[in-house]
Amino acid sequence: MIESLISFSLRNRFLVLLVAAGLFAWGVYSVKENKIDAIPDLSENQVIVFTEWMGRSPQIIEDQVTYPLVTNLQGLPQVKYVRGASMFGMSFVYVIFNDDTEVYWARERVLERLNYATRLLPEGVTPTLGPDGTGVGHILWYTLDAPGMDLGEQRAIQDWYVKFALQNVQGVSELASFGGFQKQYQITVDPNKLNYYNLSAQEVIQSIRANNNEAGGRKFEQSDIGYIIKTTGYLKSVNEIENIPVKTVNTVPVKVRDIATVQMTGETRLGIFDMNGEGEVVGGIVVMRYGENADEVITAVKKKMEEVAKGFPQGVKFNIVYDRSDLIQESISSIKTTLIEEMIVVSIIVIIFLFHWRSAASIIIQIPITIATSFILLNAFGITSNIMSLTGIALAIGVIVDNGIIMAENSYKNLSHRYSELNPEDK
Prior knowledge:
The chain has about 425 residues and is of the alpha+beta class. About 50% of the residues lie in helices and about 20% in strands.
């Protein structure tokens, strides 16, 4: 087989050179199209199901949320195993699929099964799918540098301005907000006053919900002008909440302020987002979508951040805490330098030891063609250019040259042997 291939190549030199040139051109194009990252993605092919049921203990979450979800998600096709974790007020279920399973197909199968499993959960509990990212999807962390602005205002800017803008960037799966205070109206009920007025906490909740609502009316025309009727009932201040009537006792309304204290405060927090031990900050984490080019996504996010920063209040700016693009550029640059150095050193050694320019050229020309062709396979198997894949290519240069040297030496040996068998007249 090998002899036939060598014989065919010798008889069709132009065709071999044409194929080699085509592979090299294809390889150069593949190098430009290959996705770049610092590290390979070795995480499992998983879909996360997140369920929130605040105020419940881990044991209740385990019995009423995690267990029903885990048992109903185990029968999905191409699932390796299902893991569940329960904590205070939250449940996480990790559905691990086979490595060759398409991630969005897996998410569709999980979503279909959740439509049935939701009926087994307590009323008002709705499971949701986690972002379509991976364990190495955290590509950029940032904080807001806002001197003189309180943490509640910073979190409002992050949640209602920055987050919506950066989530629209191509390749971003999620933008998680951290730190600060999420503003809310907090009503602290006095149990003694509830007992005095013979009220329950549920009656107070229902009264507030009923008074925090808007309703639409009909449209009517008068003097050839159309009017739309609607009621405005959303609560807008602490004072409006305090004046909500809950019950009437002897024709006297019992209002919220009579039984509770209302204030504007932040949501209860389980932790803080600290920056270098210098105090609390507000920021976010950019999570990359599965299968995207990390370098391109980071570049697009930074460009979008420049546009978003133009709408900030005076003195507010972004402070990038973690940027994987620096690691990507340093890793790729280091490997590229190593590849170039190896190619030069190997070429010099081949020329010196063979001392025959045609033999050396036939060996050296294999290096760029083989390296370029390897990127065709990287794209075919969805492997990014990272520190591990490029290191493997660098280590393979010795094998590439070794094969060429063996073939050149064997050819020279056979030609010498044939030349020695010729008659003196034929030499």
